[in-house]
Design a protein that fits this description.
Layout: E1 2-11, E2 14-24, E3 28-32, H1 39-46, E4 53-58, E5 62-63, H2 68-74, E6 75-78, H3 90-100, H4 107-114, H5 130-142, E7 148-151, H6 160-175, E8 179-184, E9 197-202, E10 205-211
Parallel strand pairs: 3-8, 3-9, 6-7, 7-8
Antiparallel strand pairs: 1-2, 1-4, 4-5, 9-10
The structure holds adenosine-5'-triphosphate.
The site of adenosine-5'-triphosphate (ATP) has 11 residues, from helix 1.
Length: 212
């Protein structure tokens, strides 16, 4: 699904990640790593938000740096601590993302219902709690038909029922062929998801811990 070749990422002169040669197969992947290890940096690179050196390919055909439009259509990113302009409503963002991503009819409604976001979408996001912001960010991340969805720290601020609903959506989309990368800075297990592999960001690289 993802192939790294001679990849490296630095901030100014400070190296953060180096992945000389690695293939991450399709599936649901859980990426662990301590605070500051480089998980968010990896996701921002994959989401096309940060420059890097080397090559990253998606599904063997989309070279992320060389095909930015196809890249952004193919990968969607749910941020760890999402922030939106305070005056905009959740519904306006959902409408915008649904249009830009050509989301199938009814998909936004299904996602908002599943994640318990329908009631507050008409309100301006400046009035949202951190959990409401996270639910909105998940609705936006699932919109459209990307082949890879990146969810950075998806468990933080969500109540137990919403975490279960999110697991349900991940499995539903996985059955339809979507891959997922999920991160956590906590060393927790994920018994409720059929994980393809667990990875660790450590010593400035990404290493496989376990795989099915
Ligand atoms: N914009 C930036 N400029 C300079 N250094 C940065 C920048 N963003 C992140 N870093 C550095 O890169 C390293 C990796 O940070 P990153 O946010 O990717 O870690 P993380 O694994 O997501 O951490 P956490 O679990 O705390 O969210 C850290 O040393 C951090 O200080």
């Amino acid at each position: 699904m993802l192939t790294f070749q001679g990849f490296s990422k630095s901030y100014a002169q400070a190296p953060v990640l180096e992945i000389p040669e690695l293939t991450v197969p399709a599936g649901i992947h859980w990426i662990k790593g301590r605070n500051g290890s480089g998980k968010t940096t990896l996701f921002k690179v994959l989401a096309g938000l940060l420059p890097y050196k080397g090559d990253i390919f998606l599904d063997g055909r989309v070279a992320l740096a060389q095909q930015p439009v196809l890249h952004r259509q193919s990968i969607s990113f749910g941020e760890a601590e999402p922030l939106y302009p305070a005056f905009i409503t959740g519904q306006e963002l959902v409408n915008l993302f649904a249009k830009a991503r050509q989301a199938p009819e009814g998909q936004a409604h299904h996602l908002a219902e599943a994640l318990g976001a329908t009631a507050f979408l008409p309100k301006a996001t400046g009035a949202y709690s951190s959990g409401m912001l996270k639910k909105l960010s998940l609705v936006l991340a699932f919109l459209g038909e990307p082949s890879l969805i990146l969810l950075d720290e998806p468990l933080i601020t969500l109540d137990t029922a919403t975490v279960q609903a999110m697991y349900g959506l991940i499995q539903e989309r996985h059955r339809q062929g979507t891959s997922f990368l999920l991160t956590s800075h906590q060393d927790i297990e994920m018994p409720d998801l059929p994980l393809t592999a667990t990875w660790l960001v450590q010593h400035q690289t990404l290493s496989l811990v376990t795989s099915r």
